[in-house]
Protein: alpha-1,2-Mannosidase
Organism: Penelope pileata
Amino acid sequence: RSLGSLLCLCALRLPGPPAGPGAAARGLDVASYRERVRAMFYHAYEHYLESAFPYDELRPLTCDGQDTWGSFSLTLIDALDTLLILGNVSEFQRVVTVLQEGVDFDIDVNASVFETNIRVVGGLLSAHLLSKKAGVEVEVGWPCSGPLLRMAEEAARKLLPAFQTPTGMPYGTVNLLHGVNPGETPVTCTAGIGTFIVEFATLSHLTGDPVFENVARKALKALWKNRSDIGLVGNHIDVITAKWVAQDAGIGAGVDSYFEYLVKGAILLQDKELMSMFLEYNKAIKNYTKFDDWYLWVQMYKGTVSMPVFQSLEAYWPGLQSLIGDVDNAMRTFLNYYTVWKQFGGLPEFYNIPQGYTVDKREGYPLRPELIESAMYLYRATRDPTLLELGRDAVESIEKISKVDCGFATIKDLRDHRLDNRMESFFLAETVKYLYLLFDPDNFIHNDGSVFDVVITPYGECVLNAGGYIFNTEAHPIDPAALHCCRKQKEEQWEVEDLMREFYSLKKKKKFPLKRDPDYGEGESAKDSIDTSSGGEKRNSKKSSHSLLSCPSQSFNSKLAVLGQVFLDNT
């Protein structure tokens, strides 16, 4: 199968095989579990609003709130698109208004570049692109403009100073008011460098400013350039010197979403280079880290095992494998991970594979989504009822162990079910969302392209909501079609068509000769007035009165002949 056809197949997100005797035969009531997931969401969401808003996160044991990642009302941003996936249009609309009025990025706060991108920028972009579907009255020019898009762009611009390094790899932390602090550590994890292309490329395509996509690509390529001779990357790198500080190579914490964004960036942008990079990494990962469908940690230069552990963050990998069509390997690895879940009622942060037990001080489960995420992807591909059973087990475990009066609490230790006073925003952004989508086969997110919306933008007609959504690593869905709505190269044809409509409208009202204005070109030649070779932009700023068919005051990139005849690209 060619790489091009692989990219197309991934982007189309073809529906999986029809459900067999699986779920019904095993007596799993999908609709009932879907409603239980909905109830989980509202139990957590309403208590956040009552007890924690406007802080970032809910503290469910003390029924209050705390700022964690920058004082953005983070849980509200993270939960926004989940509201629409659950069908709550009115609350989506209310929250959009609240965020516009209450969130300020011009604050003296040190923020994680990685977390701000995936949670804030990603959440705002997703909500922006879903606004029309949610019944929000969008402004003229949407999706190429809009208040949530402007907020996402403002947040992203606050992150740009972090990328001003000799290597193009960003610092891990930036002050939103002052930029990078003078004493900031230059050591950043691999994921903190390679997890920007989805959000930043989307921003560039929607706003027309290439700076975001450019810095994201430069960071990706810097990591690629600094891989080891055996094709692996380490865990932490110095962004000034490009020297690897932590040389453990694996698919989990500190590295994970770098690989994820190579695949998702390739699909979103139809970019063969990004997919080729991932496939090369995939070969090295299989050669050096894979053992009996587990993935271990190895030394990046030698390939020798350094940590024989499974980390809960690695559970995204089967879902990623499904996106490149490697479903058989994905299912085998998923089943390994599922055995760990069954053993503890959740995934401990670290699990010692040879010993079959948790690692000291890594026994917690902060309600992470990764195994559920993989189950959702694999169920779409296979309809294997085992995947629904994981969803069932997750609902039962979380409700039994984690549910408290004010929400759902992080499980501090899976061995004795002690709880911690924190509910991360990703619980509502990811964990609940992927569970709901696992149990809701008819959700609009699963659209196979059979229905879609057509919107009019300043650059022509645009198809949206046809499916194939790309989830960022915080589970914020991005509509890939939206990236083709705001292409500036369409501007020329669009403005020409507008001008032609205006011309024929005037012609019907009043007859006039199609010839130059008497003062046309006064003080400058017609050639100087309009440079057809460069798209019709003025060569100088000398004033002249223009004929009806000369350039309007706004930017106009059309090709006009001397006599005013209009030529489209296809003539």
